[in-house]
Design a protein that fits this description.
single chain; 11 helices
């Protein structure tokens, strides 16, 4: 299937939205649940009609789109360094995950259980976030390359916060899968800035 630059830019925005939320959580101990909820929901959307369906509409990617635009336009004075680092690492980790079919099968199985929990407790309930964090910890986090989260240790050492950060990283992996599925690549990130900016302008 042929995907457009608009769809690629949306998937990439999802990665950057997750990365930005990780940076917020690590540094302040707080995160905007309105920005996070569509990302958590995306983990349970496995048969979408289109890319917009994954996030419940493109409007839910506004923070990620703003960040991505700054990165693509190389606005160095406003770019958050940790956010970019997290995003690029998530893309790298997804490539490793894609080659591990057993791990992908385990994730799919465990996500079904988390989905049942979300139906019972609610999408943003601590039990659901903890369940998603556990999946990330037992799978993607076992790769030699890891996302090195930096921030205020007082925030990072609180178990609830640590779980939320892992759950957010997991949503970033979901968007990275979508980025690959829509034809996204490191080559495009390096040389396809104008095409991605054009895609962003269409969202």
């Amino acid at each position: 299937m042929q995907y457009t630059s608009k769809e690629q830019a949306a998937a990439l925005s999802g990665i950057f939205q997750a990365a930005g939320l990780v940076e917020q959580m690590a540094k302040t101990g707080q995160v905007d649940n309105e920005q996070l909820e569509p990302l958590i929901q995306s983990l349970f959307i496995t048969n979408p009609n289109d890319v917009a369906d994954v996030y419940g509409g493109y409007h839910n990617l506004q923070p990620g789109r703003r960040t991505l635009k700054k990165v693509l336009e190389r606005q160095t004075d406003t770019i958050q360094g940790d956010t970019v680092r997290y995003a690029l690492t998530l893309i790298h980790l997804e490539r490793k995950l894609f080659r591990d079919k057993n791990m992908l099968a385990e994730i799919a199985q465990r996500l079904n259980r988390s989905k049942e929990q979300s139906a019972h407790f609610g999408l943003m309930h601590e039990t659901v976030i903890s369940s998603l964090a556990s999946i990330y910890l037992d799978t993607v986090s076992t790769f030699k390359t890891r996302v090195q989260v930096t921030g205020d240790l007082r925030n990072l050492q609180i178990p609830v916060n640590a779980n939320k950060i892992r759950a957010i990283l997991f949503t970033g992996i979901r968007s990275a899968i979508l980025w690959r599925q829509t034809g996204g690549s490191r080559f495009q990130l390096l040389l396809g800035r104008n095409k991605l900016l054009n895609g962003l302008s269409q969202i």
